[in-house]
Each structure stands twice: as C-alpha cells, then as structure tokens.
Specification:
Blueprint (H helix, E strand, L loop, with lengths): L1 E3 L6 E3 L66 H12 L4
Antiparallel strand pairs: 1-2
Amino acid sequence: MLVTCHSCGAGNEFPGPLGRRDVCSQCGTDLRCCLQCRLFEPESTPECREPQADPPRDKDRGSFCEFFMPGPGRSKQQSDADRAKAAFEALFKKR
C-alpha cells in the first residue's frame, strides 16, 4: 500500500495495513492518524464522518481508531480563505 504523508507529501510503501506506530520515512510523522484518514473532515464537528468514532484530541498523532481508512493526507492547517469558504459551505449544507 502506498501512503502519501499528510505532513511532507512523501510517498511511503507498506506491505500491509498501517499500524499505530508507522511513521513517514522522510519526516517521522505518524501516518495512522485522523489527518491521514478518508473519513477526516475538518469542516465538520467532530471532524469525522463516522458517527460512531470517538475522534482523538490530537488529529496528527497515531491512534487505534477501528474506522481508520488510509486516504489522501490532508493538513489540518487551512488558510483564512479556506476556513471562510468551509464555514460558508457548512451554512448551506443539506442534511
């Protein structure tokens, strides 16, 4: 499995599923974390699309989440424009 680091963008190859202690070979960042998960959604509260998940406080730290699905790494840091756009879209989001 090829995983792109959410922090530095480096590609990391793993033979099997990501473990809680797996880190990026380039920068040492935890890879099994919210920021690396397909279910991570920074625009919502509690930032996870899985309703049964208990998201950890530190989204960039390794976790034991049973719902974790490796996805495109996304940094939690957003520009002011990105935050404003996300807030605007959340206002008119269909439920």
